Amino acid sequence: MQATLRSSVQFTGMGLHSGRPVRMTVHPAAASFGIWFRRTDIENGDTLIPARYDMVPPSQLCTKLRNEAGVEVSTVEHVMAALAGCGIHNAMIEIDGPEVPIMDGSSAVYCELLMQAGLQRQSAPRRRIRILEAIEIEDGPKRARLSPSEDKFLTLNARIEYDDSVIGVQEMALQLAPGMFARDLAFARTYGFARDVDMLRSMGLARGGSLENAVVVDNGEVMNPEGLRAEDEFVRHKMLDAVGDMMLAGAPIAGTYEAVQPGHSINNLLVRKLLETPSAWCWETDTA
After folding, report:
1. For the chain, N or C: smaller number of CB within 10 Å?
2. What is the Cα–Cα distance from 155 to 145, expressed in whole angstroms?
C-alpha cells in the first residue's frame, strides 16, 4: 500500500547555493496526494509547487522546481531521494525559503529523521511506472537510459570518470529494494573541486558550500579532514541524485537506469522523454 509519515519532521540548515538559512517541515499527506512543496515565506499568490518532472526549469548544479506562477524551490534532489528510499509516497513539504537545506550534503539526515517519525500505511494501493521499451538520452559525453526489467524495483548502474586521481573511474550497480538506499547511498555527499569555488560563487552558486556539507577535491587530495565515507562515494552520490530525479516521475519506476557521466539535466530529459512516449511505459498497481 501507499505510505506517508506518522508525524511531521522538521529540518533546519542552510541552502547550498543561496547560503541562506532555511527551515523545512515534511508533513503527512493523504493517499494519492503525491509530493508537494509549499513556500511559507510568500504570503500572496500560488505558493504550491508539485514535485513533478514537468515543473523542472533549466538550472545549474541542482534540480529546481518552478510552478506556473514562477514560485521556485531548488536543490530538491536529496530530500526527494530520501523520500523515495524510505518508501514515502505522499507528503506536504513546507519551506520558508527558496532552497532546501543541504544538511551534510547527503540524504543521511533526511533518512534518519524520516524513519524516526515512522511510516503510516494508507488505504490506496501503490502504483509504479513499468518501463516497456528502452528510452535513451545523449548529450556529448553524458548518456542516460531507462530499459525494461522484470523486477518491481529500480535498478541503477552509473559510471563516472574524472582526470583527478582521487576519483578516476568509478562504477556501481544497485537495486533500489527496501533498505538498500539507506544502507548504500544515503550517506554519500555532494562533491566539487577547489579550483571551481571562486567561479561558482561569482555565478551566485555554492555560497553556502563548505567542508561540512560537501566533499572538496583539490589536485588529487580530499580536503575534508575526515576523508571519504567510502572510496567510491562520488559515484554513490551520483546514484543518490538519480534516485531523487527519477522520483519526479510521480511514482516509483520499475526498470533499469543506466548512465555515464550522469547529471540533473540529463536525468530530467530522460524522465520527460519517457513520460512523453506512451508506448514506453504503463501504470502498474499492486493488488496485494
Report:
1. C
2. 12
Task: Tell me if residue 219 falls in helix, strand or coil.
Answer: coil
CA distance 168 to 77: 24
Which candidate in 17, 78, 89, 264 is catalytic?
264
Q: How many angstroms from the chain centroid is the CA of residue 158?
A: 15
Cβ atoms of 31 and 122 closer than 8 Å: yes
Question: Is 78 one of the catalytic residues?
Answer: no
How many angstroms separate the most distant Cα atoms in the chain?
54
For residue 232, give the 3-state DSSP assignment. coil
Q: CA nearest 49: which of 37, 40, 57, 62?
A: 37
How far CA 191 is from CA of 48, 80, 267, in Å, comes to: 30, 18, 18
Q: Cα-flanking dihedrals φ and ψ of residue 33, to 5°?
A: -75, -35
Q: Is 46 helix (H, G, I), strand (E, B) or coil?
A: coil
Cell numbers found for residue 221: 587530495
Mean pLDDT of 19-48: 95
Segment 117-168, tens digit of pLDDT: 999 999 999 999 999 999 999 998 999 999 999 999 999 999 999 999 999 9
Cβ proximity of 240 and 83 under 8 Å: no
Please say whether the dihedral angle defined by the alpha carbons of residues 105, 111, 116 and 118, taken in this order, is positive or negative: positive
Local structure of residue 7 (DSSP, 8 states): S
d(CA 76, CA 38): 13
Q: How far apart are CA 19 and CA 50, in angstroms?
A: 24
Question: What is the Cα 13 distance to its own chain's centre?
Answer: 17
